[in-house]
Amino acid sequence: MNTKSCKPKKEFMMSELQPKEKCKSARLSSPSWENMKLKQLEGLLGGLDQFPNPKVELEQYPTGPHLASRMIFTAENSFEDISNKVVADFGCGCGTLGVAAALLSADYVLSIDIDPESLEIASLNAEELEVDMDFIQSNVMDLRWRGQTVDTVIMNPPFGTRKKGADLDFLNVALKVASQAVYSLHKTSTRDHVKRTALRDFNASNAEVLCELRYDLPKLYKFHKKKEVDIAVDLWRFVPAKHQS
Ligand SMILES: C[S@@+](CC[C@H](N)C(=O)[O-])C[C@H]1O[C@@H](n2cnc3c(N)ncnc32)[C@H](O)[C@@H]1O
C-alpha cells in the first residue's frame, strides 16, 4: 500500500464537468436530518474541483453533487452508516463521496485512488472545506487491510466499459473490507448479474437497490459523439454476510 501525502496544488482549475443525475426515487430524503440539510450538502459538493483531464482508461467521471449528496445522505439518514464510522472511499477521484462522508461526521475517512493527479485535487477539495481525511495512492485490488477496520465503503467504481468486470472487482474487495455496508453505483443493465454475483460469490448477505438514477454524463472524452451520454444507474446497498442489519 503506497500512502501518499497530497500537497494541494492551486493551479488545478474548477472543472466544467458536472454530471446531471436525476433521482427517480423518493426514498432518498427525509426532513429529520439535524445537522446539515441535504441542499446544503449538495451545495458544498457542487463547489468541488473535478478532473481537469479525465483519463479514459480509468473511467474518470465525477459523481455530481445531486447524486453524491443523496447517496451519502441516505447512507447516514436511513441506515446510520456514516457518522462516527470509519469510511473508505474506493476510487475516490477528486474526493466527492469521501468529502460528503466527512461533512456528515464520519469518524475517519480514507480515500483511495490509483491516480495521483486526482488525489492532489481531492486533497485540495478537503482542505478547502476544512475536513480531515487521509488519502492513499493505490490500486484498490492491491490493498492489504491487516489490522484495519472499515465500517462502510462508499464508491462509484469504474463501470467496466474499459476493463471488463472492473465494477465487480471493486465490489469484491469492498465486501471483504467493509464490516457494515457497501454503497455503490452500477449500471442498471447489470442489475441481475450484480445481485447474483454479490450474494453468491462475494459474501454479501443482502443486496438492495435503493434508487434508480439517470446519470447524464456530459461529453467527457473525444470519442463521445453525443453531447451527453445518458446511463441508467442503480444505487446499491450491500451488507457483508457476518454483519446483516
Ligand atoms: C467513476 S470515477 C469516480 C470518481 C469519484 N469517486 C467520484 O465519485 O466522483 C472512478 C475512479 O476510480 C479510479 N480508479 C480506476 N481504477 C482504479 C483502481 N484499480 N484502483 C483505484 N482507483 C481506481 C479512477 O481513477 C477514478 O477516479
Automatic annotation (TrEMBL):
Protein name: Methyltransferase-like protein 5
Classification via PROSITE patterns: N6_MTASE
Domain Methyltransferase small: 81-164
CDD domains from the UniProt entry: AdoMet_MTases
Any single Pfam family the record assigns to this protein: MTS
Family the entry assigns: Belongs to the methyltransferase superfamily. PrmA family.
